[in-house]
Queue: 2 jobs
Job 1
Amino acid sequence: MMMNAEKNTPPGKSHFLYGINGITGMLILGVVIPIAAIVLLHLLLPAWKLVHAPLHAFMESLGILAAFSLALLLLFIRKENRDLTPHVWIASGLLAMGILDSLHAAQTLGAPFVGLRSASNLFAGILFSLVWLPPRASRSRAADLLPFVTVGVVACFGLFVIASPGVLPEMIDGEGYTLAAKFINAAGGVFFLVAAARFVTRYRAGVGFDDFLFASLCLLFGMAGVLFPFSFT
């Protein structure tokens, strides 16, 4: 029985990471754990707030470094193998996230601070969701230029927001995050979940282990955005 099961498992894929067990792993990593953590914090520490600027800056720096490093790695891998169709969309999304989060981390609390973080979530979510485009789109000249266009557009957008903070709607009021901030983050989360759905279908079709990782990442970002309206400052 064990030998037959092993023969039916595609090469390079373990029993845990293939089929229903793999989908369960994605849901645990990207959905169950974030929701459980939020629920526990609200139940056990309803009035607790972590206000520690150096720690916040350190955590932001780690996330920014990870985004840029992974984006460059994906672009390098894609240069070696252009059949890896999702890589250009994910790399572009990570570049957008890294740039806007860098500008966000350099701001003080206010409209640009929250607005840049919200825009980071939305821009990245939209770019991630491009994974639904047909494979030939990722091999086009436009796809080759997308990472460069992304860097230019989001950098200009971020600097414009900093120079003209009034261009953004109010992101924080006396009661916490405004409806605009919650909507932008939730919209970004929905785009991430749309991308996650595509990676799940690719994973179930046996395309590759990368799809397991990308699906888990999209679920994690997606749930963070969708659950943002339930957070507090």
Job 2
Amino acid sequence: MDYELPLRNEASNKGTFGKVLNIAGSDYMPGAAYLSSVAALTSGCGYVFLASEERVINAVSAQTQNVVFLPLSDLEQHLKNADVLLIGCGLSTSKKAEAIFKDTLKQMPNIPTVIDADGLNILSEWSNPKLPERLIITPHVKEASRLLDVNVDRIITNMEFFAKELSQKFNCTTVLKSSETVVCSKDLEIYNNTKRNSALAKAGSGDVLAGIIAGLLAQGLDEFNAAKTGVHIHRLAGEYAKNDLTEFAVLANDQIRYISNAFKKLLN
């Protein structure tokens, strides 16, 4: 399987490699906002703008100075300046989060969009949703069961079939996650990542993957290539982390630290 990396022109600036608008985090889940934002930057995009609650912004800003922060009250004026939208990581399913999610997708220009985590849970309850043409969804099997109203065990035993069902239902690229991962394009092309790694079975791993994919999208990859390359980079980062730290001790932020090792391998 060939993996496509974005082109990196040396005659460039921070605007060259794209701007990700990340709508993420909630009072009790600020970590998801941090992990997804920093993973996107570590994957090569030029900017990440994190729009969230003040409590989340305070928590994330204490951990990194690399993200640009936007209060949710200023969100509308920044929507048209983004190259990629990432939405849902740690967002919660509160009434306020639901309104933010739906209003953003209704107002957002038709740019590449990644919906993860609580965004998917809100989507599962939204009849006749307004969705962008260039869309990636990243459900684990339990989120997929809500989106399709299908038992989790059925999905686990036939991942390719249900990845195709999701791509057809939402006219999107699907990243269906379990111990193995299936990526299905909107044209129903399939990529399987069958390499298992228990080190990635930690809270926050999905946020890291969503950030990687958004970062690759911002640099110009199409949805299917961003998704399959992002899954592969995440897998490699997990392997490097496991080799150094053991499968027991790897945390989601460790996965981010090893993204550079994954890029090195792909560039050689």
